[in-house]
Amino acid sequence: MIDLYYWTTPNGHKITMYLEEVGLEYDIKPINISEGEQFTPEFLKIAPNNRIPAIVDHAPQGGGEPIAVFESGAILLYLADKTKQFIPHDLRGRSECLQWLFWQMGGLGPMAGQNHHFVQYAPEKLPYAVDRYVKETSRLYGVLNKHLSDGREYICGDYSIADMAAYPWVVPHERQRQDMNHFPALNQWFERISVRSATRKAYDLAKSINIAPTVDEKSKSILFGQDAKTIR
Asked: What does CATH list as the number for 2-85?
């Protein structure tokens, strides 16, 4: 029913977490981004930004031709609307959920991603850039920790796509130079999600597809330094 174009990255994990939660039938189409498979013309037709994940829904609501969706947040929202699961149905609840989904897409993911780049992969250590992104990641952790400190179990009360979006970007907290002891409410939330059956299945699935580092010396030239020529 769902073709999932996927690799074992935080954004990829978001979608397998959701699909495992709802039990939708899906078929993984591995896109090894370390080998440059995201730049094939076939994938570009589905994901014009040359990034995983992307899906093709062969049984969309209302029937008709298959629907392709790219961008992990858009995919989560599409699937939540399709299944009517893991998104609040009332106006205020839905609004809150979407705010936190966009917070992850516009903040936690990009800032943690820059953190990874300058801490782990930059060819020369730039103290200003490292300090900038480690601190911003800390600030974002603090935002979510404060939000969760009122006793709620999940970001919007009940488990939702907002949690599935944020969790994979907190998994590599050690690599981001974040001490979870400084974020007790966030840490409890993190542990709560990590023991969910669907979360475990999603991450076990990832191990069956790839256990090699996404970024190594060979792949750096593929993953970094792209410009407009990449998509021509």
From this structure: 3.40.30.10
